[in-house]
Amino acid sequence: MENITQLKALLGVPKNIVITTHRNPDGDAIGSSLGLYHFLNKGGHTVRMITPSEYPENFSWMPEIEKMVVYDIDPEYSQELVEKADIIFCLDFNALDRIDKLGDLIEPTKCHKVMIDHHLYPEGFADFLLSDTTASSTCELIVDFIHLLGMESDLDVKIGECLFTGIITDTGSFRYSTSAKLYRIVGELVERGVDDYKLQDLINNSMKEKHLRLLGHCLNNRMEILEEYNTGIFYLTKQDYEDFDIQRGDTEGIVNYLLKIKNVKMAAFIMEQPKIVKISLRSKGDFSVQEIAQKHFKGGGHKNASGGFSFQPLETTLKRFKGVLPQYRDKLAAAVI
């Protein structure tokens, strides 16, 4: 991060700070927001968190998550907080359109803006930028940020648990996007008192009965394997959403089950939601799904985890996805796992 000295000086005096993250926040978005929130509170700042939409219920155990302001529920209070902010931290997104109407509020403000993110192609709206596409997660970068400030002694258990949570979820419990540096970071967090076993249990072993029944439905009734393209597909219909009472976060992680099949190198989860069809893509090894998401489905993300959307009907979107696969047949066949 360039001009870290200037940012450190700004943070040396208590400020009104807003932390925001992307719509439909996942574990990394929530963990990085809460971790930074608790860290900045130690510096005597007045800190508020705003998310464009509600967070998944399965993260409700995280410390002080209830203090997150949801723009969709309270846009007027969100606007008031943005207008009063001296500094706005933008976490786990690389463009203001990723936070919808909240981005329209933030863009014209004169306050200092800080982006901390690990996605490709960050927009240039921030005054301070910490961007690393090789990082496992934004939570990993928050640890880097605290070290850059020379304030690692402030990393306590509460901050560490939040950041460890985002690292677990964005790496699929350390199955991908790992590095020697990441393991040094999580080792540091454990040394500071983080109970990684407890966190793994809270994150991975807190399903409701309906979650397992939904997974069974996907495996038994909504799975298609395209062997010639080393690709697996799950899909859900609007009726499935009603039958299983699918709420925000209920489908998290299901797409990864396709990658358990030996020769499947790319997995797609295509979900028919009320207004759009959402596409979640995952891959193994050196095959990148980022290009498919960006080029064909107005999305983006990372090499092994990306997403997009379509305004076409589910059947049309499925056909369209299958239609692009011949372009990637050779790359998928040659991909090294």
Automatic annotation (TrEMBL):
| Segments forming domain DDH | 16-167
Q: Which InterPro entries match?
A: DDH_dom, DHH_sf, DHHA1_dom, Oligoribo/pAp-PDE_c-di-AMP_PDE
One Pfam entry for this protein is DHH
Show the GO MF annotations: nucleic acid binding
- First and last residue of the signal peptide: none
Occurrences of domain DHHA1 (ranges): 243-308
What the entry lists under SUPFAM superfamilies is as follows: DHH phosphoesterases
PANTHER family xrefs: BIFUNCTIONAL OLIGORIBONUCLEASE AND PAP PHOSPHATASE NRNA
Q: What is this protein called?
A: Recombination protein RecJ
